[in-house]
Hints:
Blueprint: H1 2-16, H2 18-22, H3 31-57, H4 71-94, H5 97-101, H6 107-130, H7 133-137, H8 152-185
Helix pairs in contact: 1-3, 3-4, 4-8, 6-8
Amino acid sequence: MAGYREFALTVAHQILNRKFYAAIFKGKYNALRILQLTVNCLLLLSFVCTALSGMMMSRFATPFMNGILPSSIVRQGHLAMSHWSFVLMGLHLGLHFGMITSKLKNKTARIILGIVMTVISVFGFYLFFKSDMLSYMLFKNPFAFLDYEKAWWLVILENLAMLLAWGFAAYLLSLFLRFVTKKEKR
């Protein structure tokens, strides 16, 4: 049932951001806008693939979709797409960090936030590679290996650290692209 909530939230998010879709073919594209469009389109595609593969695996909610493809392929695709969705969601969030940091007028607060995000990001990328998430993303691992002995709150914090790591990386890339774009305009 959880998948349906995420699907509904994704649809609602798309509806609320309809102005983004209306503006796709308007204006000029610089490197940052191309990055944002690419991340957004890939995220939407990965969400759709995750939802479809989840429906194909369901024998109860959508029995008419069960058996379209072999279950081993669908399961591996679902794992890969859900992990890609996670990374792309982090990148998507990071491309919006600028709106949050622009509200911080205090330079000391910005520096402290930058240090905290750097530490969290280093730890998040360490966890990302330690848990071998790349093998899921590259269709190398057909099964999810979960540690049922680990506390639920620790799992959430580790996933948050990994998500913020990708977000901070996207934020730094967006700062770099803004800098390059401003330099080219001069």
